[in-house]
């Protein structure tokens, strides 16, 4: 069963919170050659790379959820416009004398 629009919007909001909570990332995803002379700098670089990989995963999920929201809204709008077309018109009441 497809997710409701409300569920999708909630999931998107959760992804936004997770993205905002990310720590430092490495050089905008570009390959960088660095010397990592100490275990501390190696660990820091590993954390930053892992953070960037997590960011990529979150962004893919965000795009996927956003696409589902767009489809759900277009379906919702289509359904609403079809319902409007199908509504019977009410007969006008004759003026009161």
Number of helices: 2
Estimated radius of gyration = 25 Å
SSE pattern: HH
- Helix amount, in percent? 55-70%
Average pLDDT, to the nearest integer? 84
Per the principal axes of the C-alpha atoms, what is the gross shape? rod-shaped
Strand content: under 5%
- Terminal CA distance reads 56 Å
* Content-based structural category: mainly alpha
Question: Can you tell me the residue ranges where pLDDT is under 50 for at least 5 consecutive residues?
Answer: none
Largest β sheet strand count, sense and barrel closure: none
Quick recap:
The chain has 97 residues and is an all-alpha fold. The chain contains 2 helices and no strands.
Describe the structure.
This protein has a domain at 1-20 and 39-82. It has helices at 5-20, 39-86. The model has no long low-confidence stretch (mean pLDDT 84). The protein is 66% helix and 0% strand.
Characteristic terms for this protein:
2 helices; mainly alpha; 97 residues; 66% helix; rod-shaped
């Amino acid at each position: 069963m497809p997710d409701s629009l409300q569920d999708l919007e909630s999931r998107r909001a959760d992804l936004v919170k997770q993205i905002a909570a990310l720590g430092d990332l490495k050089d905008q995803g570009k390959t960088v050659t660095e010397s990592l002379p100490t275990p501390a700098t190696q660990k820091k670089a590993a954390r930053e790379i892992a953070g960037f990989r997590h960011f990529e995963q979150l962004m893919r999920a965000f795009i996927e959820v956003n696409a589902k929201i767009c489809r759900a809204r277009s379906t919702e709008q289509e359904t609403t416009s079809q319902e409007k077309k199908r509504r019977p018109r009410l007969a006008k009441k004759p003026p009161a004398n």
